[in-house]
Design goal:
The chain is mostly helical. The termini are far apart. Keywords: Chloroplast, Membrane, Plastid, Thylakoid, Transmembrane, Transmembrane helix.
Length: 193
Amino acid sequence: MAAMQSIISSPMIRMTTRSRVNQFTTPAVYMPSLRRNATLRVRSMAEGEPKEQPIEPVTSASPVTPSPPPPPPKPRAPKVSTKFSDVMAFGGPAPERINGRLAMIGFVAAMAVEVARGQGVFEQISDGGVPWFLGASVVFTLASLVPLFQGVSVESKSKGLMTSDAELWNGKLAMLGLIALAFTEYVKGGTLV
């Protein structure tokens, strides 16, 4: 109310106009023009500190439906180094994956031969298993290194159930399985099955 009185009593706002009909002077009240892109601020005189409110410009009288937010940008594939020293580094992508893959194949092969022939791990190694182990190691090492030297990351080929983390965990469990199998056969003095 006080704001309206100050607006009405302001000397800049008060204007006098002469009517052609009766020649009396009447004070004219200032009415602000409402433009289409004018912003409107509403302030409250409530107790407490005033809170800043975002100001939204009024564009039209018709209701505007908000547009859906833009989709998030696709994550870029990290650049993979193809240098031999980076690929074969202690924390690089190759050593643990290659060892895990060889351990998975070795564990399955050792269990299959033990069930089929009744030979333990040590018997398999001494009965001509070393050339098979070396041949499989060379083939699987090269098969694992070729994509890494071409810049293809293991994570980029991971989908669904077959993720790179699952492969690492399976490789670690296969390594532990081979050690446990050999240790159990050594302590037992014979085959596990």
